[in-house]
């Protein structure tokens, strides 16, 4: 009894959670590491006394080696379990995950150094095939499983039985040799799996049975050892995004499509029979022939037409910081390291949001990027501002929830803690009205700040918070139809490279939207004589053909530490290469 009281006293977070009947709990790994080590490297037993818990996170704790027995039985309402970057092994996971977690929808075990999965996730199978098929699914509602950053060499068919409703399977940064490999049992498996990521592995073969995933929409096998792609890939009925960059494909025409992320072209090419066996040589010869014909046209005085065609493509010009008389600088405070450490920024000039639905398309595209490449803001968050309303230099800082004040989009000034409370109440009301668990809008992202003692924010030279990632930006710098110069910001708690990849994609998307606006002559919402309703690439003479005659301009932005030392410069020479096949970058 005395020992039990001592344990409770050592975990005031758990006492508070029990007292307040909390449904979410986030234990910062660094803060609890010593207590976990003192408890034998396992989760505290007091956790088992929180039956209302729906979301639990303990990440970045090198002392955490096992969950301890009885976790699944004690937390029947748990729908989110995040255990990133700990030291959990299969033996340490098994006792905690043993039994059923009927409500679990998201399980994150990334960065634990797992060499195999526990039996509960279909790993080393402790019972016969027939007996296992008769057992109920251990995770009947699991939708997302993150196993990235481990040491897995293969996955067995047991995973499909344990989590039959899986929609997202993240396997990047392991040691997998083949996909799907043994992942798919003989019977139909993973009918809802729409996202499969296995970048940065050792995959040498992509099997034809990949086509057995009927709902697959996104496939990432970048930076593996593939030399060819199966024709069956073209039989994936819903595949929209496929990333095979960083593989040494034999068919160089196919490799060029891959490097340009041209999924539709890749599938059509495979459907037509191109796999790098025989037809690749014909493809290369055809490409050389086209190049010769183009050169002959130029030699014959038709180069001017080619130049005009090139101008009509998607163009951006990079303005180096040394060429900019008034470059924008973002200073990063040390406090963001433990909250949301990564930020990338740039300025984009020459955007036309005035005609028709251009602004609506822009905002819709940003929302879609948050859902897709930003992984519902869990990987990164985008914020876009009207540059004319941004007062630099800027500071990327952290502030306590009770001190951080912001005027959110469409709302009055409010403290961050009050805003989150208000949004949580709105979310509960929304659930009641719609009688469903899911919520929309900002309410989906509230859990991303659970357990944080400080919140990240971007502050302008006047001390005004213009961005509060991953929740909202400020009404002060809101983009309007008359906006033509943008300040773009991407933040992440995952990696700097994710920020850069998202920014690359964002700039490409804005360039595409700008081109669409120029080519589709919609009526503007303001007068044709208002110069600030039009922007760089637009020809303001209504009697002439509206044609993009100047590229969008991307101005480099420096991110520095408090001593002025450079941390990030975007775009650098190596940035925007991921979209280079779709975007011509003038440096």
UniProtKB/TrEMBL annotation:
It comes from the Eukaryota. InterPro entries: B3/B4_tRNA-bd, Leu-rich_rpt, Leu-rich_rpt_typical-subtyp, LRR_dom_sf, Phe-tRNA-ligase_IIc_bsu, Phe-tRNA_synthase-like_B3/B4. The keyword Repeat applies. Residues 278-288 have a biased composition (Basic and acidic residues). GO terms for molecular function: phenylalanine-tRNA ligase activity; RNA binding. GO terms for biological process: phenylalanyl-tRNA aminoacylation. Residues 339-515 form the B3/B4 tRNA-binding domain. The keyword Isomerase does not apply. Residues 413-440 form a coiled coil. Keywords: Coiled coil, Leucine-rich repeat, Repeat. Signal peptide: none annotated. Residues 275-305, 521-541 are annotated as: Disordered. SUPFAM superfamilies: RNI-like. This is LRC47 protein. It comes from Asarcornis scutulata.
């Amino acid at each position: 009894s005395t020992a039990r009281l001592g344990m409770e006293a050592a975990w005031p977070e758990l006492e508070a959670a029990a007292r307040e009947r909390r449904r979410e709990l986030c234990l910062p790994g660094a803060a609890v590491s010593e207590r976990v080590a003192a408890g034998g490297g396992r989760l505290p037993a007091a956790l088992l006394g929180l039956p209302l818990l729906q979301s639990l996170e303990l990440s970045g704790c090198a002392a955490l080696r096992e969950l301890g027995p009885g976790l699944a039985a004690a937390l029947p309402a748990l729908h989110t379990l995040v255990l990133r970057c700990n030291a959990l092994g299969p033996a340490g996971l098994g006792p905690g995950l043993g039994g059923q977690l009927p409500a679990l929808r998201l399980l994150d075990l990334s960065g634990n150094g797992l060499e195999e999965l526990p039996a509960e996730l279909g790993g080393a199978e402790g019972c016969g095939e027939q007996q296992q098929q008769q057992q109920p699914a251990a995770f009947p509602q699991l939708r997302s499983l993150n196993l990235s950053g481990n040491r897995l060499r293969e996955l067995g068919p047991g995973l499909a039985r344990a989590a039959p409703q899986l929609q997202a399977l993240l396997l990047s940064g392991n040691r997998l040799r083949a996909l799907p490999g043994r992942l798919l049992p003989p019977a139909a498996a993973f009918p809802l799996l729409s996202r499969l990521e296995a970048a940065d592995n050792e995959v040498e073969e992509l099997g034809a049975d990949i086509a057995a995933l009927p709902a697959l929409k996104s496939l990432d096998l970048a930076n593996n050892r593939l030399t060819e792609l199966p024709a069956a890939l073209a039989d994936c009925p819903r595949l929209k995004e496929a990333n095979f960059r960083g593989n040494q494909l034999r068919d160089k025409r196919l490799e060029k499509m891959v490097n340009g992320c041209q999924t539709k072209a890749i599938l059509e090419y495979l459907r037509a029979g191109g796999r790098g066996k025989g037809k690749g040589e014909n493809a290369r010869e055809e490409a050389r022939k086209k190049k010769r014909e183009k050169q002959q046209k130029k030699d014959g005085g038709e180069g001017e037409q080619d130049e005009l065609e090139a101008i009509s493509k998607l163009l951006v010009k990079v303005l180096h910081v040394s060429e900019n008389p008034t470059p924008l600088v973002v200073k990063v405070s040390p406090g963001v390291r433990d909250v949301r450490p990564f930020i990338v920024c740039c300025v984009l000039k020459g955007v036309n949001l005035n005609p028709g639905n251009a602004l609506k398309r822009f905002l819709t595209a940003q929302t879609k990027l948050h859902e897709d490449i930003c992984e519902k803001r869990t990987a990164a968050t985008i914020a876009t501002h009207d540059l004319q309303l941004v007062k630099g230099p800027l500071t990327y800082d952290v502030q306590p929830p009770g001190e951080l004040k912001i005027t959110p989009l469409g709302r009055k000034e409010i403290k961050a803690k009050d805003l989150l409370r208000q949004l949580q109440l709105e979310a509960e009301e929304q659930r009641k009205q719609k009688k469903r668990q899911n919520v929309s809008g900002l309410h989906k992202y509230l859990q991303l700040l659970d357990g944080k003692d400080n919140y990240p924010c971007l502050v302008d030279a006047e001390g005004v918070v213009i961005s509060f990632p991953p929740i909202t930006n400020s009404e002060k710098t809101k983009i309007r139809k008359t906006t033509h110069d943008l300040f773009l910001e991407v933040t992440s708690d995952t990696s700097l490279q994710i920020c850069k990849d998202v920014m690359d994609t964002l700039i490409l998307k804005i360039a595409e939207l700008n081109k669409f606006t120029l080519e589709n002559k919609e009526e503007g919402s303001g007068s044709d004589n208002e110069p600030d309703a039009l922007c760089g690439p637009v020809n303001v003479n209504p009697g002439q053909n509206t044609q993009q005659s100047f590229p969008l301009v991307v101005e480099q932005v420096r991110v520095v530490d408090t001593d002025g030392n450079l941390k990030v410069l975007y775009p650098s020479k190596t940035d925007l290469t991921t979209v280079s096949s779709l975007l011509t970058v003038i440096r």
